[in-house]
Structures are given as structure tokens and as C-alpha cells.
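re the bet — no i am not wrong, look at it urself. input seq straight from the record:
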Amino acid sequence: MFSNIFYFLFEIIVTLFGAACILRFWMQAARVHPYHPLLRGIGQATNWIVHPLRRVIPGYGGRDLASLVAAWLTGVVYVLVLAALSGLNVLAVLPASLGIGFFMMLRWALNLIVWLTLIQVILSWVNPHAPLMGILQALTAPLLNPIRRVMPNLGGLDLSPLVLLIGAQVGLMLVTGLSINLFGR
């Protein structure tokens, strides 16, 4: 019983931290103001790993690649810790954990797309002038605008978030299927 609780809490902590690293990259790429409280909070939670990685991994085109590497390393460490707790040889699992960490990072990114889009849609119905809407629009606009250019105009009904949600869910299914096929996980 206690081991199930530990695994559950460990997975939540790892998932939130990995998603925070990806969100840090995404918010910087979307050029969210650096002094926004959300970006500062995510920065404070992830600085301990991102700052040392920046010394080794330079940014590219204004994008903080160290944040993505931190998310990937989080997935790798997660797999290695679970392997160690299961009694497996960590060195034997290391090559597969490198790939699994990448697929975990993709799943976290797709889940972020789903959650941020859902929150934006709900806020647009409830309180379209909420302070969080600016950030949500900055983050989702690069994903929604290409869909909006292709989708027919239905008056005041915007179906692009629905298309994005469906696409992200299909992406999650593909990533999960690929990770199972490649790594037997």
C-alpha cells in the first residue's frame, strides 16, 4: 500500500517538474514577459537544474535548450529510479531510459497543450478578460493560428481549439504507442 502511494506521489512530482521545464522553454519561446509571476515561479522551481545546464548547453535563436534538456533528464532519472526500486540493474536500463525520457518529454508537452487549451477555452467563456488569458493566448496562438487559417469561418464559433485538442490527443496516442513498441513499456 505504501509503495503504491510513494510511486503515485513520485510520478506526480516528476511530471509536474518535467512539465514546468517544458513550460519554461515554451514561455520563453512565446516571449512572455520575463517578470510575469508565473514565469518567475517556474523559473525559481527549475533554476537549480537549468542554470548549470546553460553553462554546457547554449541557447539557440533565443530559445533556452537547457530547459528542454532538463525535462529530458527528469524523464531519464524517473525511469532509472523506478528501475532501481524494482530491483533491476540500472546500467542495463540506462540505454532504454534515454529514449523513454524523450517520449516522456513529448507526452508532457502534449499534455501541456491539452491543459492550456482547455483552460483557455473555459476562461474565454467564464472571464475572457482574466489576467491569465494574455499568457494563454501567447502560448496557444502559434498552435491555433495555422488551424484558424485552414478552418472555415463559422461566424462567432471558433473550432480551432477543438481541432488542436483532437490533434494533441492523437499525438499522445502515437507517442504512447511508439514508446510501448520501442521499449516494451
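see?? The longest helix spans residues 90-126. told u. also The CA atoms of residues 80 and 94 lie 7 Å apart. so pay up
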